[in-house]
Design a protein that fits this description.
Layout lengths: L2 H19 L9 H8 L3 H7 L5 H20 L1 H6 L1 H11 L1 H9 L3 H11 L8 H23 L6 H16 L7
Helix pairs in contact: 1-2, 1-4, 4-8, 6-10, 8-9
Organism: Paenibacillus nuruki
Protein name: Transcriptional regulator TetR C-terminal Firmicutes type domain-containing protein
InterPro entries: Homeodomain-like_sf (IPR009057), HTH-type_Tx_Regulator (IPR050624), TetR_C_Firmicutes (IPR039532)
Length: 176
Amino acid sequence: MKKNQTIFLKLCLADALIKLMASQDYDTINVNTICKVAGVGRTTFYRHLNHQKSKDELLMFKLNYEWEYYAEQHEEDVKKDKGFAMLNYIYENKRLFTLLNNNGLVTLIMHLFEQLIPAEEIYDKSLSYLMSFFSYGYFGVVYQWIKYDFDETPEQIQKHIIDTLSSGMKNPQDEK
């Protein structure tokens, strides 16, 4: 199957899974049901996906694909401030992120952050610690935002992040 057809197939399957997640628990959704909703045979499904983690793989594919599409459409914004662009991407896809959270799939969101924040660049050991600290901290803020049902704008969340980083950089001796 050609690359574009594979992408289309995976997107159809992911969309079917997401549609099902809106009405039933993630753990109860099986491959047969996904295939039926997507109009795809099981053989085709397994030809393109890992047998053990196929549902997770579909969702990660969808998240990455949607991010890449968003980043392409907002190239200047991503270059200017990738973190803020990610907040906007998440906000525009808040229904999906809420579904992931409501179905106990927070680790998928965390894995997305692991992939996107460092942009898969290679760092030395000490810088890798810093990137992990930043990635998981940023994830933590977004996770709370999801739990608060996106009750603030991306601009407000960015301000919380900046304020938190600024307060963490202050020297406690300076306040005396």
